[in-house]
């Protein structure tokens, strides 16, 4: 048994395998685009390392793509065959992967909590917990987890910047902006290229309306993102949000075409249907459309990918974005097929995801379609029951915002002033900026608020 960079034992007698594992884990924590290659090198070096196969299983299912679940299951099966050589911490990771594949995300979260409670330097368990808690709409859990492990870390330990960056984002999402920004800036001071820390501070600035400062923040840090993965697109999307709020729509479209949705030969997206890239693109086009901006044929490329993912409900928050793409391209038959596939998943009533699809993603998608087809009254009626729990789909306040803007648009078109007023009161209670200072809410605020 040898120990990794965090002092945790790995079930191998190969120092080279331990170094390769550390290198792969660092790639994951730092959002490195070459992380799959690092993992491949690890498994080639030591195919008997059970945690290497657990790590591959995690990486496969992290993408929320149904086509990759088979590979994740294979990795889980190989790791299970090697389980006799695993220690108790490693077997707990295998159990977490197994429950994740079975669809029980709540049990998966509990196992990771048990791991980092006993082994607070297990940054893999901590970071995965942070990820899934976020996509289940549990920022309070994210915050509690990071505050529990932070006292047992110090800046000399690899991964400390990740802990600070996660602290920054967790605090931002619960509205603790001072702590969040401080932690994020501390992380950047230690590693200027940490994209998760840059992302957390960008969220703080978005929530506080510091748009000019946010643009400069991201521009200053962008040179340090060389070699990072798709999260860079999300950071450029954040920059686009600042310009959007300033009414600089031409700049937003330029960032779309040459930044976060650049499909040109100069910069090809590695995974153009990756959930976060789809959310970036669809939500921005939808926001622009609500402001009357002609987005040209940009919906078509997204709609092609949406049609290929009908029935894939692994990430419920992405589903309304797929529907926006289908509706934006006028692909009504495909939109209906997507709803039918979602209803089948919802009816299964199994695991963590199907109830989220049933109670929130499905009515929101139905509302997107109804509003796009000129039936705003139906959109309002469909979406009202989902508003109170829509946060459970996951996504940040900045990401959920597009769904609230869609509802508000439908309420105004339907002349349902009371529904519009209730929505404005809801977001006013959560967002530090008044609706009059947010471009997607200004018209409604003038029309229905007193």
Summarize this entry quickly.
This protein is an all-alpha fold. The chain has 23 helices and two strands.
Topology:
Layout: E1 2-3, E2 9-10, H1 15-29, H2 35-45, H3 50-62, H4 69-81, H5 88-101, H6 105-118, H7 123-135, H8 139-149, H9 160-173, H10 177-190, H11 195-207, H12 211-221, H13 231-245, H14 249-260, H15 275-290, H16 298-308, H17 319-328, H18 332-348, H19 353-372, H20 376-387, H21 397-413, H22 417-430, H23 442-448
Antiparallel strand pairs: 1-2
Helix pairs in contact: 1-2, 2-3, 3-4, 3-5, 4-5, 5-6, 6-7, 7-8, 8-9, 9-10, 9-11, 10-11, 11-12, 11-13, 12-13, 13-14, 13-15, 14-15, 15-17, 15-21, 16-17, 17-19, 18-19, 19-20, 19-21, 20-21, 21-22, 22-23
Descriptive notes:
- The protein is 68% helix and 1% strand.
- It contains 23 helices and 2 strands.
- Helix 10 (177-190) runs antiparallel to helix 11 (195-207).
- The longest helix has 20 residues, at 353-372.
- The chain is globular, with a radius of gyration of 22 Å.
How many helix segments?
23
Low-confidence stretches: none
The largest β sheet comes out as:
2 strands, antiparallel
Cα radius of gyration in angstroms? 22 Å
Structural class: mainly alpha
Molecular shape? globular
Give the SSE string.
EEHHHHHHHHHHHHHHHHHHHHHHH
Strand content: under 5%
Helix percentage range: 55-70%
Total count of strands: 2
**Largest beta sheet: strand ordering:** 1-2
What is the residue-mean pLDDT, rounded to a whole number? 96
N-to-C CA distance: 68 Å
Oligomeric form:
single chain
